[in-house]
Design goal:
The structure is a single chain. The chain is an alpha+beta fold and 277 residues long. The chain contains 9 helices and 12 strands. The chain has a domain of 182 residues. A 5-stranded mixed beta sheet has the order 1-4-10-11-12, with helices on both faces. It has a 5-stranded antiparallel beta sheet with strand order 5-8-3-2-9. The two termini are 36 Å apart.
Length: 277
């Protein structure tokens, strides 16, 4: 687990940055509007062959639950294998009942959830090019403090394969035993929204996620910023003079304590230098 950052950043084109400061609102995206078609996807997986289960996997799962230790302890008694198979059939039946409801459960959760994507870097050349309209936009720095929303950010994990819930007998049995609890639903939700392809690793993303039932069906939801949320504004090296003057004037009025930096291409390296106004 990475150390919790003391500041976060978000890249904007000029219009987005200006409107964020002017309205004092930060725009959260609905999960259906994210730019990666693999985002918030999960592979429920197929249950294993219940007619030929891996007994060792089954026993390992059962041994973790105190209620079933007695069954494990009776392994040497006559008829134990038959009784175990009957018991496992019942377990897998319960699993199928719970698993059938998962796609609709995940969809219902995603339908009302919105995401605010942040990063821990303000000087990433790829993100400046991708998200600020070729360096003509800006990066806004936000500070997690006083228990504001930014204190709830969670780190995104990167991997090469889509998360799969059930791949082994052990996965199925543990899920059947636990059923649908707040903890298991949170675990599934985190797996969905906090997992991305390794291709995005350079973004070093952190996310804040929250259900906004009143916004259900809307592509985004605007959340009010506190006076202390914005700490700095970083202006793109190719921002036009008029836009530059307008946004500096605006941020000085709306967030007077915020620092303002202007990006300058470094003369000898592929990097940006930032001059504090």
């Amino acid at each position: 687990m990475a150390e919790f950052p003391n500041r976060f950043f978000r890249y904007f084109d000029f219009k987005g940055a200006f409107e964020t400061i002017e309205t004092r609102n930060i725009r959260w995206a609905h999960t259906s509007t994210l730019n990666d078609p693999f985002d918030c996807k999960i592979n429920v997986g197929e249950p294993p062959d219940i007619n030929n289960p891996n007994i060792n996997e089954c026993l390992a799962a059962l041994s973790n639950d105190p209620k079933f230790k007695l069954i494990i302890g009776m392994r040497d008694t006559p008829g134990w294998d038959d009784n175990l198979n009957i018991f496992l059939n019942n377990i897998f039946r319960d699993f199928r009942i719970h698993a059938l409801s998962l796609p609709s459960l995940i969809k219902s959760i995603m339908d009302i959830n919105y995401i605010l994507s942040l990063t821990t870097e303000f000087n990433n050349l790829l993100m400046w090019a991708h998200y600020t309209n070729n360096h003509t936009g800006a990066v806004i720095e936000f500070s997690p403090e006083k228990n504001n929303a930014f204190c709830a950010a969670e780190e995104v994990k990167y991997r090469d394969d889509i998360p799969r819930l059930f791949g082994t007998e052990r996965d199925c049995i543990e899920f059947a035993i636990k059923g649908s609890t707040p903890e298991s639903r949170k675990e599934i939700y985190d797996l969905c929204v906090l997992t991305k392809s390794s291709h995005w690793k350079y973004e070093k993303e952190w996310r804040i996620t929250c259900p906004w039932p009143e916004a259900k069906g809307l592509p985004h939801y605007d959340v009010r910023l506190n006076d202390y949320d914005i700490k700095s504004l970083y202006l793109g090296c190719q921002m036009g003079l008029v836009n530059k003057n307008n946004i500096i004037k605006l941020v000085n009025h709306e967030f007077p304590s915020a620092n303002v930096f202007i990006a300058k291409p470094n003369e000898s390296r592929f990097s940006l230098d930032f001059v504090n106004l």
